[in-house]
């Protein structure tokens, strides 16, 4: 009774973090925010694993001779690096972590449409990871992450089936996440949250989900066929028995090319949010940016044949796929132009998330443009399967997806944890990552152009200088990853308490307290404003967790 | 008056089957239907990979596929087609009775659907055991008498992969029906809440559609060339 | 947005049509039609049957526009996969083999 009179509550308010403290309350949670955190911990672990492989690869390539590992071990290293990073880090990274955490809040819902499926997806993911890890510890796999037959079906004597099964299972978690998001966006939007008031991150997630549900099943059936062929040897992809190995490549890349957009589309969504917030301007050409996400998702399905230019695919099909590949550049360019136009005359502040977002734009531009080189039939014959390709997709996957992941981590860290990270260190780390990344991968463009093939553990001595530069860059990059790991963990205990809206941003996620209460808002928000409508702060009402600023500033 | 309206709304909002994160039953129903449709899209693509492989290899080896298909039993395949289409009818009628709230008929038609599904699977077992006796299991023991045994083997692995995957979906469907029958019998479904029946129906019809394509592509492909 | 209840007699009519089409497809398959007409007829009938099931048994004819878009999108993506892969297979080998002009 007496507490009701005292204005400052003695009891800390209920957030999704302190709603239950037991391990069981985490492992059986149906709260999308907690599931997002479960994913965050899992994929960060796999990023670490993939990073260890990368470290070993770069160390081996320091010298032209094969002095650190054997050829066979090297094959396993780059295969495990690719599989871990692609299937267990990049594909689930932004959708499963930040999508899960933010999407329902951004549209003003209490949860995703199917919370049980959402939890199931995490368990399915971990089961897949278990199989892949078993394969890794049993001796690894050496087919390359692409599993091309006939090597994967007839010759490789490594753990192809266990790894394939792991990816097959993890694929279903990707499908479940995509399905959940599509239904959530269609049916769970708060009153007034029309399609064109959605944050662009939600549009990007929607487009990503389309790819996840349309592409992943094809990868699943393809891996099943590889496993079947390996076990009984019936000539599914074996030319000696009447099969066609190129059919595998069609099926594989029907998923795996669009999968690149699973990695980069959510990143583009993150960048749109960050650019708007730190330029204090609405995104220029909102509808164009929104629809370009959908366009990338759709056109991205029409270009897979550009991976088959040198695989005895018909030349005519090659021309068609080359042309269609150029078409993907249009929606991608729309995004880059619109971000640039948003920056124009914005009042820009260079906080750490913004540094990552600006880095993304530059590196994605380089990655995208070199992609056009590779989509050109004639040039591709020269640089196919060289370090040029390796550099190109690392500019997209690391320079693009990973930088956006780090940007998102910093941008929404106060929301997720209720703590602010040390801004100075964060800016420094962002610069270290940018420098380290470019030093690692830019020399690889030159290496590839000069003819250094990918997936080799020894090389001609004249390539050594560039390889040494690349390895040096990788060590700087590693520092850039370790720094955030330290100060973010530090901030969990020691960081200043975060207000509801530390960036003075616009989305609904900033209208609830940091960290949000279990059901996100105290009452269903009614949306009367457009995305990125910057209004005076006193107008922006806080509709979650009581008086979050008062209680969280005095709390603890 | 206003008081009774409030209580009526209260009653709707607290339908026992309404999950906490939905605003009302309508939203919940919409979400589950859309969810099932999106899932069926993934199923289209899943089977799609096999249909693609079928199209490629059939266009490469049309003669061999026609000859090999003579080893399939058109009569059993035809009976199974009839069985499956009938089961789709009974499933549709089960959904109808869940919509109008006729519990007895709902349970009856669900049981009929399940029995027809089991009949289909039983016939499939007979067919598979025939193939086993004829030595037509690819890779394990494959003794094909006609010309181009290797290419015929491609036909047979496609046959087993496609019908096997289809049969797996039938088994899942029959298991879902078992749950539905139990809950329908317990009276859980009503005209206000019958989404589980409805979306299971969608799944069942989808599995039927897959068979509608498998039957002509696998069984009838060589009917016209008398072997 | 309350759901549409399809009358029972519609279901029976669709069932009759499906049975008839099954009989027709088996019957027609016995004849050796010219060109690739056998497969064309078989697939046309199968597509018709599938359409009937989707429209009536699965209620898509009465469903929301969203559901209809989802169905069409699913079929469209299957067609993308089939057609673009076929673009490789049907044009393979069309190019005349390159005559070697290396030193004799």
UniProtKB/TrEMBL annotation, chain A:
Membrane-protein topology: Multi-pass membrane protein
Key word Transmembrane present: yes
Reactions accelerated catalytically: 4 Fe(II)-[cytochrome c] + O2 + 8 H(+)(in) = 4 Fe(III)-[cytochrome c] + 2 H2O + 4 H(+)(out)
Positions in coiled-coil regions: none
InterPro entries: Cyt_c_oxase-like_su1_dom, Cyt_c_oxase-like_su1_sf, Cyt_C_Oxase_1, Cyt_c_Oxase_su1_BS, Cyt_c_oxidase_su1_bac
Occurrences of domain Cytochrome oxidase subunit I profile (ranges): 26-528
UniProt keyword terms in alphabetical order: Cell membrane, Copper, Electron transport, Heme, Iron, Membrane, Metal-binding, Oxidoreductase, Respiratory chain, Translocase, Transmembrane, Transmembrane helix, Transport
Statement: the UniProt record of this protein carries the keyword Nuclease: no
Molecular function GO terms recorded: cytochrome-c oxidase activity; heme binding; metal ion binding; oxidoreductase activity
Membrane spanning residue stretches: 37-57, 83-107, 119-139, 159-185, 206-228, 252-276, 288-309, 315-334, 355-379, 391-413, 425-446, 466-490
EC number(s) on file: 7.1.1.9
UniProt GO cellular component terms: plasma membrane
Function: Cytochrome c oxidase is the component of the respiratory chain that catalyzes the reduction of oxygen to water. Subunits 1-3 form the functional core of the enzyme complex. CO I is the catalytic subunit of the enzyme. Electrons originating in cytochrome c are transferred via the copper A center of subunit 2 and heme A of subunit 1 to the bimetallic center formed by heme A3 and copper B.
PANTHER family named in the record: CYTOCHROME C OXIDASE SUBUNIT 1 (PTHR10422:SF18)
Protein name as it appears in the record: Cytochrome c oxidase subunit 1
Species annotation: Pyrinomonas methylaliphatogenes
Automatic annotation (TrEMBL), chain B:
Enzyme class: oxidoreductase
Domain of life: Bacteria
One family name in Pfam for this protein: COX3
Domain Heme-copper oxidase subunit III family profile, chain residue ranges per copy: 34-223
Keywords: Membrane, Oxidoreductase, Transmembrane, Transmembrane helix
CDD domains hit by this protein: NorE_like
Known EC number: 1.9.3.1
GO terms for cellular component: plasma membrane
Protein name (Swiss-Prot/TrEMBL): Heme/copper-type cytochrome/quinol oxidase, subunit 3
Organism: Pyrinomonas methylaliphatogenes
UniProtKB/TrEMBL annotation, chain C:
Top enzyme category: oxidoreductase
Transmembrane stretches, start-end: 12-29, 35-57, 69-87
Topological category with respect to the lipid bilayer: Multi-pass membrane protein
InterPro entries assigned to the protein according to its UniProt record, in alphabetical order: Caa3_sub_IV (IPR011743), Cyt_c_oxidase_su4_prok (IPR005171)
Protein location: Cell membrane
Keyword Transmembrane helix recorded: yes
GO-annotated cellular components: plasma membrane
Keywords attached to this entry: Cell membrane, Membrane, Oxidoreductase, Transmembrane, Transmembrane helix
Superkingdom of source: Bacteria
GO molecular function: oxidoreductase activity
A Pfam short name: COX4_pro
UniProt-listed Enzyme Commission number(s): 1.9.3.1
Record-given protein name: Caa(3)-type oxidase, subunit IV
Organism name: Pyrinomonas methylaliphatogenes
